[in-house]
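Recall that a protein's primary structure is simply its ordered list of amino acids. Everything else, from secondary elements to tertiary packing, is in principle encoded there. The following example makes that idea concrete.
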Amino acid sequence: MPVDEEPRLPKAVRREIDRVLGRGDRARDVALALSIGGEAIDLEQPEIALEVLAWAKHVAPRIPAVREAYGIARYLDEDWAGALTELQAYRRMTGRVDQNHVIADCLRGLGRELDRVAEIVEELLAEERAPEDRRAEGVVVWASALADEGDVGAARALLRRFLDRPGKADQPHDLRVRVLAASLAERDGDHDDARRQRAIVAKCDPELFENLADAPEA
């Protein structure tokens, strides 16, 4: 690891690394690998993240943040099985469900049972502390999995329930849900609802409206 760089990590993560590994060069190197890997993930450079995070996992497999980051890197690399292994380990180690949307998408990518995808997303939706953007991503994955199975009606109903929840505005994550809702409405022959969803998206975020073609496959 570079000797002239300092890790840029939350204090709680650095404390956990020191607790597991003890203070010293090994802990510093793992922290730096996690820092470099996280920055590479943010820049969508999974090849860099995979290299440093694979090493960090080898040295410190009991640190949840390492397993989480390595899982996300493998997900970005479209290694659904590898990402699933790492993120399920993170989930078991922490009891947290904040990566359930990614776990669900890995299950979908692997063609796993729809019931399992639904279970994982429902667990995320039931967690009161879960961020709204991750809830939205989970709903997108679940609805897409339903559409994969040919149940477009159930997929659309799921999206409507999410969009009709009380007290929520059209935030960027809501607009992503509406993009998929428009696509599924079109597929279902409901052109009026497709136009309505597109109009809402266009009003709130014209750039996203122009990129409707980038919506998840349904």
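The radius of gyration is 19 Å. The CA atoms of residues 88 and 103 lie 7 Å apart.
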